[in-house]
Known about the structure:
The protein is an alpha+beta fold. It folds into three domains: 15-357, Alpha-Beta Barrel (7-stranded beta/alpha barrel); 372-573 and 836-854, no CATH class; 581-832, Beta-galactosidase, Chain A, domain 5 (Distorted Sandwich), CATH 2.70.98. The protein contains 19 helices and 36 strands. Strands 22, 23, 24, 25, 26, 31, 32 and 35 form an eight-stranded antiparallel beta sheet that branches. Strands 21-20-27-34-33-30 form a six-stranded antiparallel beta sheet. Helix 3 (70-90) packs across helix 4, helix 6 packs across helix 14 (398-414) and helix 14 packs antiparallel against helix 15. The longest helix has 33 residues, at 431-463.
Amino acid sequence: MIPQHGNSSICPHSSSLLSAIRTLALFTGLLLVLGAFAVSVIAAEDDLQYIQRIDMVSLSHLDVGFTDLPTTVHEYQRRYLDVAIDLAWETRDRAPEERFHWTAESAMPVAEWWQSASPDRRERLVELAKGGQIDIGGFPFNIESYTDRLEWKQMVHWLPEDAQAQLRPQIGIQDDVNGLARAGAMQLLDNGIHRVFMGMNQAAGGPPFPAPTPFWWILPDGRKVFVYLADGYFQAQSLFGLWDWRRGPTARSYELAYRPPRKGEVFASDEQNVRLMHSRAIAMLRHLESRGYHYPRLIIAFSNLWRADDDPPFPYLPDFVATWRRLGLKPELRLATVSDAVEKLENESGSAAPSYRGEWPDWWANGPTSGPRELAADRSAKRNLEAIASPLWGDMTPHVTATIEALRRDLCLFEEHTGGSAWSEAFPDQLDSEAQKTEKVILAYRADERSKWLLSQRARTLLYPQAEGLYVANASALPYTGWVAFPSLGLREDDHSVRDRATGLVSALEFRPGLQMERPKNPSELTPENSIAVYADHEPSAVARFWVDNVPPNSVRAFNLEKQASAAPESPKATFTAMLDADGWPSSIRWPGMNKPLFTAGTGEVTSVKMQGFSPRWIAMDMLDMTDHHAIDEMRRQHLVTATSQVAEQTTVERSPHMTVYTQHLELPGMKWLIRRLEVWNDTPRARLNIRFNRIASTDPEVLLVSFTLPPTGTPPTVSNGGVPFVPYEDQLPGSCRDYFAIDGWVSYSSSDGNWLWISRDAPLVTFGDTHVLEKLTGTPANTNRIFSMVFNTVWFTNYYADEPGEMEFQYDLVWDPKKYNDPAAVAGSLETDPVVLINPAPREHPVIMEDLFRP
Length: 856
């Protein structure tokens, strides 16, 4: 993603544009190139003390969107590979350094190309790959930080098996995004790849330390990968001062006024031009050396100048390099693939490269939270896929396995880093922005819906052959205790209780108001939030429920439905002690055996941070590009407005033998309504917080956070990303993002007073201690026992969504145990997973229906 501002030509002599470029600060190195233009004396090449060789690698940075609609990107990225194959084949008889080389940055276009290519075209690609002219990246695309453990496995197995075996990717490439989960690097190592090329964009956060530089990344299991942290995938443009050719906004592929450069327009191969570009490069190289680049080999990427993103191969680089070499210019210049260049750099300089440990959180992780509902659908689909794979249902058929893989690919692609078009924030209502979002979000919604259908097929196949009754299936790894709820219309008889077949225990069915697809008869059948009033959402007895205790993991509990009502339930017997504030909301809750409560005051508050000022999103980008923290603090004081939810109504309390529920309406500017609901297990140190609100449409940049305060002060939190645990602030690369962290959905605190586990079902981005909006933290904040769940963020200036109004819901679980959680991920996954409820009537399902419809 490279955004362009306005329609001005980037001219090195324009002081006004130079000021604008400083303000935008999109490209590290661009100012250096502009400075090089002002050098009146041509730099001598023998001024260089370290850099002896330059490897120039050609690639197309893949944005699945941004420049064009994803469907269009898929097509022309496949075509780019054909172009690269033909250009490489034409130049295969030239000197090795002057042959056309191409690196397919991402494996996804190669996989799609392979599936439709003829055998002879496949053979030609394989021959060129083995000859070192064409290279394939080990990741299918550039990824955000929300990929889970199983998705990472899928990511490194994107190519068809025969393509994988013959092409054998040797390097993982992550461009644009300024971070990478260690889980991804570990998957590379598991598959024989131990190098990573990071061509990160400098915008909105930047690299953890000055780029370019190589380093060793030591992973939690002691293994290490060799990383080349490049100065963007457009460093060749910067090095040779070519941005003055690049004009206008990010162009669509179909816009006929724009085009890729042609022969002689950039990288012209005549002697005069080559010497001019050599002089520009020398000035830049001298600066790189003065800044600390002390390695003999420099790797620069060239991604064309049509848009710089999603651009085709440039055919004329071999002629430019041939002239450079014929003139004997230094440093040596050659064309190479990414794998070859990084391998040579490792062999030459690996012993001198520094080593770093820690997770690599990225600054762009806040972008996906501009679509909270879509992110929630993505996470729902992940839970469904885990449940589908439960051994409870029996062996998986090839169809089930293939469907899971297809849905997991959809989720990976949803988590690809391109959230929208170049114009999505600026013009959120135009056709292009809507189309980009539609193609993106359908991946999550489709995966969620199809996974639910597949899970129902697995359940029906197992349980329909069983006897008449109601079945509760727990497809998680831990026992389930809680309510079992289902639509009461599923009961075809006048049933009022259920009898456990194994124990004979009878439980009353409790009927509660809920949604029915019926016209409301009177206001009592509508909740206060239902202003549309099309269907009754408070219809009496719409939902039936009953309580179950300890349904074992991966098991089914069978019940008989009975018409007679059971005995009245016992009176509530809560064992916890709750401290309530003046409005009746719990400020702390403690069970016997606990030295400290489950949570303390401040839990369940919603905070809004809005930006003010002229062109506020660009102000945000300015702040992210600043390094003077006094100036950042002053900018935050000027431009950030913070509001915290206030009580609108007294808390209502509902008690049952199993649970006590507190409900309270809140007020917050920008909300039609806001409700928090706290469900407290009476005899178990556990609570569930549900936050629902209806956000009023506004394209003003805003961040929304839900706060939690847990007692273990001084205890560092542990989280995980992609299944790899880490301690924020302590176990991360120096200079990487500390303002927020993408996590798998849980935070754990282990202390001498017990162990607290915080779980988020829908919102996997957190920060600690305070909101830290645009703060650019460099240290560890105080009070890391205070969690802020970032549920909404529209501060981005491009590529994501400017607004998402309407109703949203976020669920959190809090649990305490005296013993340390050996597997917090398993606990979190189980508490997030609802039981599968199936009603099986006495008549048997027709075998044709069973075989042709319900058997997966």
